[in-house]
Design brief:
Layout lengths: L1 H25 L7 H28 L2 H26 L18 H20 L1 H12 L6 H22 L5 H29 L19 H26 L6 H20 L6 H21 L5 H25 L7 H26 L5 H23 L4 H24 L4 E7 L2 E8 L8 E6 L2 E7 L17 H15 L7 E5 L15 E6 L2 H7 L8 H4 L3 E6 L2 H10 L6 E6 L14 H10 E10 L8 H11 L2 E7 L8 E7 L8 H4 L5 E6 L28 E3 L15
Parallel strand pairs: 5-6, 5-8, 6-7, 8-9
Antiparallel strand pairs: 1-2, 2-3, 3-4, 9-11, 10-11, 10-12, 12-13
Helix pairs in contact: 1-2, 1-4, 1-5, 1-6, 1-7, 2-4, 2-5, 2-8, 2-12, 3-7, 5-7, 6-9, 8-9, 8-11, 8-12, 8-13, 9-11, 10-11, 10-13, 10-14, 11-13, 13-14, 18-19
Length: about 725
């Protein structure tokens, strides 16, 4: 059994270890949004379905000897392809630069094609392992349950997911990870070949359709197959919906992706290890508590701490997925039909992924599939408990009461789903997330305003009254770090006898509030990836008019900001910005590819003489200051942190201004702000660095305690009393 166990464990480890690596390669080229991961998950589920279909057909149609021969050929072909890619492109699995889309050419189809070419064959080969080797094991070890091997393979997957954000991502670059994974694949191929050789040596041929083992049983009917599809599909929907919910408010990346997927796999392990590990009443009770927490958090519609968000969403995912997988295991067939069982389970997972990524954006204007799926899980738990109560009279009363509570909770979850976004006058969902326009203060002309929300985070607002519509608001008031940088640049130009007009670049459009800081003669160039945001900022719907009202000249470039800026440099079109503002966070999520050392060099080359880089580092969950100061040191720029508290017009903000002039922030513009201005530097080597090859969110999570060691005021010897990062 050992050779089968080790091979299955390694195949599962590699299968899930390569998924976050593929996501890290895809994120910088496809917008850095949560939809990149759901697209990757759709690809992985489809490949898994293909692998299970291959195993099912092999077992059903071919003799064991023929199965082993064909599979040895597949292993050899895959190893040859990996070796060929390594020699041709320099990496066994990394996508080539030809797959990088144009700035406005981001699409699901292109991402799926890139994954298929760079990773399709090895991922397919790995995905065939679990059902095929378990079938071979049932033949060579009759009477021993193969389902424990399935739990073992899921344990390998779980360890790969837990290792990635804590042991792999912080220490190894993408290129090293790719080569290490290829080496692991070679070890797997050897182990799988040994198992195939044992089948060949035994030579137990059979005719098509003959039973694999003596343990037979009736073929599953349509009802049972539909149950398999529904349970596996429901768990898959819940996994991806939970991941979307967390990703849009923190960051799209392996650190956030891995926790939901790890919990999902843990429920597989518990359910398939032995039936006693799954208890309907306990699972229902956990579902009751966690979904209640999710519902109350959502109804609060306010910032919630990262630990609490992770706790309630993870608990709801765990209990809902455990319910689905526990019932799935109870409906398992005899080992004879093991291949069909895994095939239908995989099909359900693929259908769930397709629903979240392809169908839900057209059916719902927000992430409604999340509360709806939780509601369905509550209904299922209640029905199962009611059925169990009728079979156990002593527990009937308690179980019926629990069922009633679950039904009430289900009603609350469905009510949340139905009412979600009802306070919005416009709601949009696309590849780059969910946005809502909210109207408030209608009864008070002075407070009447329209607000754009991405997730639950404010992305700008504008007053409705004509006399107030041009007033700068939210994070872009004249007193904010960006406003001070613009004012100081104007004064420096006037002091040199130059016109005070400015050329300003802005990464991230929002509702266009930054344009309200413009004056006649200024030129503002915005870079925005989401066409829906551009339409709103240009006045679609009549909610926002900053772009139309400003006296400055306005340009809007659609596409990924990094790709656009790099293309402009390649074409000899350095913009020469006096101020370049980086405000590219979607909700509180960080597109990491716009915050690395490599892109900082791109920003620097687009600055004019004396140009200032203004980085909006406000965040509710992540402390971005150490990374930003590391970039300042690497670029030879001087850093000034400007923090502002909330007012009626403004939200609390943290802007880091980077300038080649060490005295830039010592003028009168900044002196009047007093203690809210900090000239910072690193006293030693940076403790955290982000590059295209290596970046990790783990050291920046504010909930783990912010490490400000090595950050000092230019005129001080101790760490400054800098406030915690403000949440937008």
């Amino acid at each position: 059994m050992l050779r089968y166990a080790l091979t299955l464990f390694l195949s599962a480890f590699l299968l899930f270890g390569v998924q976050p690596l593929a996501g890290k390669y895809a994120l910088p080229w496809f917008g850095g949004t949560p939809s990149v991961w759901t697209t990757c998950m759709l690809f992985f589920q489809l490949m898994l379905l293909g692998g299970y279909a291959y195993a099912y057909v092999s077992v059903r149609r071919w003799s064991p000897r023929r199965q082993a021969q064909v599979h040895l050929g597949l292993l050899g072909l895959t190893v040859a392809v990996l070796a060929g890619r390594a020699l041709w492109t320099g990496s066994p699995v990394a996508p080539g630069p030809e797959w990088r889309p144009e700035a406005d050419g981001i699409s699901t189809a292109r991402l799926l094609a890139m994954l298929a070419v760079s990773l399709g064959l090895p991922f397919f080969t790995l995905s065939t392992t679990a059902p095929l080797l378990q079938s071979w094991f049932s033949r060579v070890r009759p009477g021993t349950s193969p389902y424990r091997l399935y739990a073992l393979s899921n344990t390998g997957s779980l360890l790969a997911l837990l290792a990635y954000p804590f042991l792999v991502e912080p220490w190894l670059g993408r290129g090293v990870q790719a080569w290490a994974w290829a080496a692991g694949f070679l070890l797997f191929a050897v182990g799988c070949a040994v198992c195939a050789w044992e089948v060949l040596r035994r030579g137990e041929a059979r005719v098509a359709g003959e039973a694999v083992v003596a343990d037979g049983g009736p073929a599953p009917g349509v009802g049972r197959i539909l149950a398999w599809l529904g349970l596996s599909g429901g768990a898959s929907v819940l996994l991806l919906a939970t991941t979307n919910q967390l990703s849009q408010d923190v960051a799209a990346g392996p650190f956030i992706w891995m926790l939901p997927l790890a919990l999902y796999l843990l429920t597989f392990i518990l359910a398939f290890e032995r039936e006693a590990l799954y208890s309907r009443p306990l699972t229902a009770l956990l579902l009751l508590v966690t979904v209640g927490g999710v519902t109350s958090t959502a109804f609060a519609r306010a910032h919630v701490s990262l630990p609490l968000q992770v706790l309630v969403h993870s608990g709801a995912l765990f209990s809902g997925a455990l319910l689905c997988h526990g019932e799935l295991y109870r409906l398992r067939p005899a080992p004879r039909h093991l291949g069909a069982f895994y095939l239908w389970v995989s099909a359900g997972g693929a259908l769930g992924a397709a629903f979240v990524h392809l169908a839900a954006p057209f059916l719902f204007r927000s992430y409604l599939e999340y509360p709806l799926t939780l509601g369905v899980c509550c209904v299922l738990a209640a029905l199962l408990l009611l059925r169990q109560a009728s079979e156990a009279s002593r527990a009937r009363l308690v179980l019926r009461q629990a069922s009633a509570l679950l039904l009430l909770l289900m009603a609350g979850s469905l009510g949340l789903a139905v009412t979600d976004g009802q306070d919005s006058i416009a709601s949009m969902r696309g590849f780059f997330g969910v946005m809502r326009v909210v109207e408030t203060g209608r009864e008070d002309p002075r407070a009447h305003k329209f607000t754009l929300l991405h997730g639950n985070v404010l992305h700008g607002f504008q007053y409705a009254r004509p006399e107030h519509r041009r007033r700068p608001t939210s994070y872009f008031t004249p007193e904010s770090g960006l406003g001070l940088a613009l004012t100081e640049q104007r004064q420096l130009k006037q002091a040199q006898g130059l016109p005070p007009s400015l050329r300003v670049g802005v990464l991230g459009l929002g509702v266009g509030t930054t344009a309200s800081l413009g004056r006649a003669g200024d030129s503002f160039r915005f870079y925005e990836i989401d066409p829906q945001v551009i339409a709103l900022a240009r006045g679609e719907g009549g909610y926002f008019s900053f772009l139309n009202d400003t006296p400055a000249r306005v340009e809007v470039a659609q596409g990924d900001a990094r790709i656009l800026l790099e293309q402009e440099l390649a074409n000899g079109q350095a913009q020469g910005f006096d101020v370049l503002a980086v405000d590219v966070f979607s909700s509180d999520s960080i597109p990491v590819h716009l915050f690395t050392e490599e892109v900082m060099e791109v920003y620097r080359r687009h600055l004019g003489p004396g140009g200032v880089l203004a980085m909006h580092i406000s965040n509710a969950h992540l402390d971005l200051l150490p990374v930003a100061l590391a970039h300042a040191r690497a670029s030879g720029l001087h850093a000034t942190l400007v923090e502002k508290g909330s007012t009626d017009d403004a939200r609390a903000t943290s802007w880091l201004l980077l300038s080649p002039d060490p005295n830039f922030s010592r003028g009168e513009t900044f002196l009047r702000e007093g203690k809210q201005v900090h000239r910072l530097k690193l006293s030693g080597p940076p403790r955290v660095r982000w590059t295209d090859e290596r970046s990790s969110l783990l050291p920046l999570v504010a909930a783990f305690g912010m490490d400000r060691r090595g950050i000092v005021e230019e005129s001080a010897v101790a760490p400054p009393s800098v406030a915690a990062p403000a949440g937008p």
